[in-house]
Structures
1.
Amino acid sequence: MKNFIPFILSFLIISCDKSYNPAVVSARKEASDIGVEIMKNGGNAFDAMVAVHLALAVTYPIAGNIGGGGFVVYHTSEGESGSLDFREKAPGKAFKDMYLDKNGDIIENMSTLGGAAVGVPGSISGIFEIHSKFGSLPIEDLFQPSIELAKNGFIVTKKQEEALKDKLQDFINVNGSESLFSQNYKQGDTLKNINLSITLDKISKNGPKAFYEGEIAEMIIEEIEESGGIMTVEDLKNYNSVWRDPIKFKYKGLDIISMPLPSSGGILLGQLLKAIEGYDIGQFGHNSVESIQLMVEAERRAYADRSFYMGDPDFNKLPVYELMDDEYVNSRMASFSWDKATLSSEVSHGEVKTIEESDQTTHYSIIDADGNSVSVTTTLNTNYGSKVFVEEGGFFLNNEMDDFSSKPGYPNSFGLIGSKANSIEANKRMLSSMTPTIVLKDKKPSLIVGTPGGSTIITSVFQTILNVYEYGMSMQEAVNAPRVHHQWVPDVVIIEEGGIDSVKDSILKSKNYFVISLPIKSDSSGMSARSSIGKVDAIFIDENGEVSTGADPRGDDHASILK
């Protein structure tokens, strides 16, 4: 008995002392390294989130931001799950038909380019809210790496050179030829943003008021007004992030935690996984004809529901779990046939009883030694947002107003169609596709996942989950695997290069599926030009607590892990 007691005590000590290897996966090596360094120096996953977000604002201006917004889903080491909505809001002077001419037609580019496209930014509010609730290190310590990074500069990559070149004329048109980003940057150049370093320093010392009131706020409004916008200083002053209950559901014994409205991501992810749950999709094989059919038909019906039912829950009573009800989802799939495609023209939204988004988003996933898990997706909407650059502040402003339904039945930049639920109203948050998600297995973190990609975000997260849990892929394999996308309208199946062979392509086409293989360079299909689907950044934790990462090779994404 004497020898048994020490054994029990040592077992308890070992069990309680179990820790994870802290890891960050993001769109830039600099940001991932900074996040891991923060955790190495005693910070938790939430501290790392603040530092990573700011580092991306410096090194990844195409989507990383302080002039945009986003969503956080988290799960703490104590077992608490939650979400924070720091999505942008419409200005107080916004109104339903603000992007229509006197004939009721869409005014080209008004919702995407220039000051009228800008929603009230939420990022600064979001990171301070997270830090206030969960942070352990002083906020100044979390800002400092990015202040130095902006001051000293970062190296332009080949992919950045191409992205900057693609939008160069827009930068010149909106901001003038002398603007920081109106220059011709090449791979290997060091891009310094001194004004952004000064802005970040002011915010770190004076808190969110330094952004939403005073000098920086006035800079923002001046730039917006000069390029035709309607936002006011009062809009900035009145902005608030919102803590929301996350979407929670089960899939084959896994607990899924995802983002609620005004993100459509969590609801649609629930619909998709429930729609296929009754099938042994793992036995069909990855990107087999059967698995593609099943995914496409589930996606077709889910996106039809998205277009009709979803918007800002603070403005409308909207169905949530009603849309993920097993009976409802199964009824939607009742018309599915293995023999032929269901035409999107034959599919509309379903009926529930309770009823009265960019390619250039960015995502990062974080876990700390204690198991605190954070999944964050943030965006300016399209590449470099509205292209409005606050010169004195050193940052771009979003064009999130395009994520509203400017006109019922009219597609946005991503081909997504909306209805009254997502119509423009003052101070309303626009509908999003962002899907930051955490999967629990046996109540412990198993997968932290998310991606950019506009309308393809939801389907990319969906497939990454299937790749891990149905097809048994490693984390990096699951991220690398070619993806498939369908969004109801347009009625096309988009498949990444290498996703299917000619035989499978012929079989799908014989069943009346309109298949397009990437890359596509025109929008004749109704989809924006693209070469890939999503840029998934994810972390997997196995049953032994071992951490592995997946950084998407479709971008400059990078995983950093503390061994």
Note: The first strand starts at residue 23 and ends at 26.
2.
Amino acid sequence: MLRIKGGRVYDPANGVNGEVRDVCISGGRIVSDVDGPEARTIDATGMVVFPGGVDVHTHVAGGALNFARAMTPENHRTAAKFIHSPELRAGIGGTTPTTFATGYLYAGQGYTTVNEAAVPVLSARHTHEELRDTPIVDKSCCVLMANNELLLDLLEDGELERAKQLMAWFLWAAKGYGIKAVNPGGVTAWKWGKDAKILSEPVEGYSKVTPAKIIASLAQIVDELKLPHPVHLHCNNLGAPGNISTTLETMKVLEGRRAHMAHLQFHAYGGDDWHNLRSETAKLAEYFNAHPNLTADAGAILFGDAVTITADGPWQHLLYQLTGRKWGNLDVENETGCGVVPYAYKPSNLVNAVQWAVGLELLLLIDDPWRIYLTTDHPNGACFWRYPEIIHMLMNADFRRDLIRKLPEKALNRIVLPELNREYTLSEIAIITSAGPARALGMPQKGHLGVGADGDVAIFNNDDNAERMFAYPRYLIKGGVVIVEEGDIRKTIDGKELVVRPTYDESISDYLKPLFEQYYTMSFENYPVEMHRIEGADIHQCE
């Protein structure tokens, strides 16, 4: 039992905005009160109390991450090391931290739940092994489906009901939590050396399946399966000049359906080539603000080293051509693909300067913080452990303006950031880092401090410098266990994995078995992830 006493509590999901009150935990859950000699008290007087952070979109486990780690050995030589101790296992930080380091780094800035946003079903077993190896935080994952050729074949034939059964089977086979759509149709086309840039045109190899049809079908199926999280969508034409038109068209396809727009920063550009690329965040925010069916994460960038890693193979090849940097490509049989390109964002680079501004603009122009969340699409835009830098920029307009002055002069007439004076409050920070992502993911036990919620609490020193404040929590409590104390990790625990169990017709197996024999290198029987591989599974029944 634990009592957190006298802190200023920010719990926006329950309408608590900086009130001095106690937070009590017993049996791993928030309770109304605790009493008895065994109850510990943490004196949080003068400190700020938040629900544990929730990252709605990150990349922390799986084959692609290991590919990225292998491609950046120089990073591991220079990155900070986690040396084995009674409390910590050895690990390496940097742009692609290893599993142990990932858990420590997230906990070390107040996060308790992360969503791995892109998992091929074929490699899900390995992904879960890495998630199991990642300490402290609870985990969920989104399964890649927008380029699964078995699914596209059914959409081509107009068999939407069977497509729904198939998708539900794949989701449960992967022990996933949600459905991810990356460049719908574009990764399939990449196997032919093509892409899918126009939403209304058929995908290479099909006559009726278009990106628009894939998007609409996935959104419909996710709703019909009653999944807690809407379709998690990486739009077509990621990173390209003028992609604002594709993004707006995609949003129109989704009208009437729930959707989460991933790393929106990479989809908010005007212009028709790299020389005249500009921000179109005002146009995007205007549409987004008027359509409450949508949520999004920022995918903000920060200057410095990163590793771009995405299932969007065509984009990664283009980035390789543009930069001449190292490039790797993976093809995951009938399901998806992947590309990896190490990258460095530079303030002197005109395109990078616009990208940096766009991420902040979206967070400042989208009115409702319950619908736009703090991410860097780790490790694509920057590492997750740099979130406090972004928080500081959101909370301090003067600091932002000082940074804007360092941008190239040519960038200033292509962005709207200098005109924006909005400053986030602590309550809004609690929303975009915890309460909002938890709501978007459909995790009612996360992101708040009401009775019955998971006992996940972050306690920070009150500091005018938000970067310093949020970089080092004074305490982190996970499931009632004190993990971080006085800024140091004192104990580690195993987090749980959140999994959905959709309802489907078992006869779909009869349809799939011969297709596996024909098209897959893995047998049908060995394909699904066994439950014993899932650490502390928390299963959400979808009925």
Note: The two ends are 35 Å apart (CA to CA).
3.
Amino acid sequence: MFDQLLVAGIFTLLVCSLVFTRWRAAWVFVGAMLLAYFSGLVDTAEVLAKASNTGVITLMLLLLVSIGLEKLSWLTRVSGKLITPSYVGSLLRLGSATAFFSAFVNNTAVVATLAHTVRSNRHHPASRLLIPLSYAAILGGTMTLIGTSTNLIVSSFLEDATGQGLAFFDFFLVGASVTVLGMFAILLGSRLLPQVPTEALDINEYVIEAEVSADSELIGKTIIGNKLRDLEDLFLVEIVRGNYLISPVAPHEYIEAGDKLIFSGDIKQVTALDKFDGLSLFAVEEGLLQENMMEVIVMPNAAIEGRTVKESAFRAVFDAAVVGMRRGGKRLSGKLGNITIQAGDNMMLAVGPDFNERKNLDKNFVVIDEVIGEVKTTPFQNYFITATLLVVIALASLEVIPLIKGIAFLLVCMLASRVVKASELRRRFPFELWLIISSALTLSAALTNSGLVTLLADALHSNLAVLGPYAALAGIYLGTLVLTELMTNNAAAALSFPIAFGLAESYGLSHMPFVMAVAYGASASFLTPYGYTTNLMVQNLGGYEFRDYMRAGLPLSIVYSITVITMIPLVFPF
């Protein structure tokens, strides 16, 4: 009884920490795992076994392989042909291509690649296409084992519990159904999205800071006299002078030494400030700006979140300088260095030669526009890696070879053909995800060892006995869906799986429907910008507000849920 109460307390603390704090999920899971370990709920052998679980290793290899798949040029080649004068046609073409590629490539990379195409098109406002782009990527990821890390996590849990993980195309029938029907729901919901002109998204959002040096020729002259009103697509909105903020800026305001000039405008026109004597951009060294510009989005739970730009020490930590910044279509105020960074913020960085080698990039940013460091694959590399991938998928699907062996071979081929570098794999190794899964597997063992999972499953079974297994399936799905809106999808899947598996055993039914309910429930994040990385990526790019996700996502969430609950029992009978 004591062990059960202890495990219940650990899990309550775990859930509360994930929902109500800003602590990183990886360290929350590790902390809970250590509590279980030092309390004697699991032994050393179990902890080590979970950390080296075959399913976990397969997941790590697949995520490393996805780094190479992101570089293949197929998506770039077709991106320019997706948007036509017809809005419906463009939406269907864009959504179909996004869903297809997201089934095999990390959906974050797919959205990052196509977002540039969407923003640069002149047929339709980007705000009518970017949320549908994110939703299509989420739907596409549900069709295969490697489409999303959530599917891989569920497979790892299943392999740990039964010795047999999920096959590559186990998700396809249900995933293809929700993708097809979901596209019609996206088409319906997209009509509720705002029509923000593309020009309004590109201009008047970034805040750019420039400092007047002590020997500048601008000193002692007015704004008009210095022709600071004549800049194309850049507007002087504020002057920070010591502890004073001058806003709005009068045309006859005189410039003084040390003034911080705050511009708002098109970040692409920032080089126009170079022509003014003694005017230097915030934290940007001379010459760095001209060639090495990169646009990024701050990730949820990034190490820099909650800090000011100055406190983040960009130069030392990332070998980069912040040129401009924007947030949700709102104009930021004050000195650039004093702005507190939030998840979803867009930043334009001037990056140094060592930027791409920093190990902390993926924990903090999603790159949207990359000027340097972009590796373009050759035709041979494209065809060779694609053919190898197809062969691996075919052999693994036919159970000729284990998936882990095929993926390991594919990774070796990528290294041999120089599609990826060893240094790149080290930098992007998903260490925190490995910690989450290993810790979650250990906590699942603690649940089982204490008997709490059996107790919970039996309690759920007795309460749902009158309604039958369909109600239990729907309950698991909806519970996971709620969790994924409150925390990360990976954490939601990790928490829901033990209960779902135990519930299946209490009914004496096949575990597959309940396992799949967890996988699809954890991917059903359409109502907020924070539940899924791609939703957050497009928030600033499209100038969206929270309500836009509710409007467009609610029809999709309803269609998705009905389709999942209907299809799972048909494809995976009880």
Note: The first helix runs from residue 2 to 20.
4.
Amino acid sequence: MQVFHGKSVFAGVAIGKIQVYSKAEQQVKRVKIEDTEAEVARYRKAIETAKEQLGALYEKALQEVGEANAAIFEIHQMMLEDDDYQESVENMINVQKVNAEYAVAQTGDNFAEMFAAMEDDYMRGRAADIRDISERLLTVLHGGEEKSINTKEPTIIVADDLAPSETVQLDKDMVLSFVTAHGSVNSHTAILARTMGIPALIGTPLPLDETIDGKLGIVDGTNGVIYIEPDEEILKKMQAIQQEEKEKKELLLNLKGKENITIDGQKIMLYANIGNSKDLATVLQNDAGGIGLFRSEFIYLEKDHYPTEEEQFQIYKTVAETMGEKRVIIRTLDIGADKQCDYFEMAKEDNPAMGCRAIRICLTRPEVFKTQLRALFRASAFGKIAIMYPMITSVKEVRKIKEIVEEVKGELSEQGIEYGEPEQGIMIETPAAAVISDMLAKEVDFFSIGTNDLTQYLLAIDRQNTSLDEFFDSHHPAVLRMIALVVENAHKAGIWAGICGELGADLELTQEFLAMGVDELSVSPNRILPIRKIVLETNVAEYKKNKQEI
């Protein structure tokens, strides 16, 4: 058994024969040209042909992976029309009097190297796109046909790298997975793989020859491993995981697209919790109605400096645009307690869970808060963003937030910067907020109950202390009564109330939450469909009746 490790692009397990795909290198010779005008015309005709091919690829991708991902091929069309790229090729033909093939190959190499040397990950990923369009032009100029990966049986494709055009043309019924020796997690190919739901690895140092071609392989996309000729133990283990995944997929097929409505007509919103924009594919794959908790603090935790307004804006904008008409609830900075950033230079606290964290940091460091709010309000012009403030304990805090929000809106208006009018809500995660939820409900558009902190504060138990696990009862009557009270007060004030803590994903409580009238559950993406199943099978009135009789 051989084992190779790579970077995971998409999780999942694939078991099958390996097919090594080697792209034939296009031989480009330097040929002296006398009629440069005719050669430039030949180059321009090749561009038009390549654009037609990309148009066809766009239509195919549109059907298979959606508009956002099909846009890759629109980008490739624009790259073909790029002035700098075209000028480089045509100048080389005219000045050096060389053939179009040589000019395209040289320009492609130069531009790809330039992008590959950039510091920004996204821009580095564009090097593959440059190579892809250059290869396409060379194929057209050579008069050849676009090569695609063909296989007679479902296989694991192993290659040095795969271009976006090659990836989108994969027959998903015949391709179990792909593994490449090179590539970037930020490449369009990687993005397409995630959207298509194909287990995939990149940056995997495995031999691309007959020593593995035709051999049995297992791709463990979750852990970034490929096994060549696995032993019996590994094979059985992976087959079991694969079976679990199959059952989940069947659940998806049966439940995807169905409304979250009980037998007796009660509706509930099922949203997803995510930590960054990389999770969006999983959100859409699991048919979430929106994002109920985008943990913006991860933007801060992943950096060694305060993220700028522009850095945050681009992330929020991407999420909003990707989700379209679906609501995206973004929680403002929730640093503190178990989430620390060195560059915040926070004072050491004996009890950080009850210390300076979340909204307390924002209100004591308004410059940091305003930077985030500016980015959020700007991004709200591009989708259905809602803003949620954590760790609230008083009406006074909410009103102070509103003052800062008005300052931000005023500054944006003065600068002529477009912004939306997002919904604004708060997390109910302190007993204080829960007890005065009737007062708080008059100040905001929605509640989202953070059950993790609410439980620890109600029970006076540090949830990070594993030695107290036996005392940490998330089903404690006090917790459930508090949730019911918050929902009741929200409805009295005409606003909606959801749950975004771990308790929302507890399948034992789904019916109880329905009985309380909870309007929304925001959970890990992979919990949405199991919850939907329970919702569809529940008669709330009957559940309440049976509960009273007990």
Note: The two ends are 58 Å apart (CA to CA).
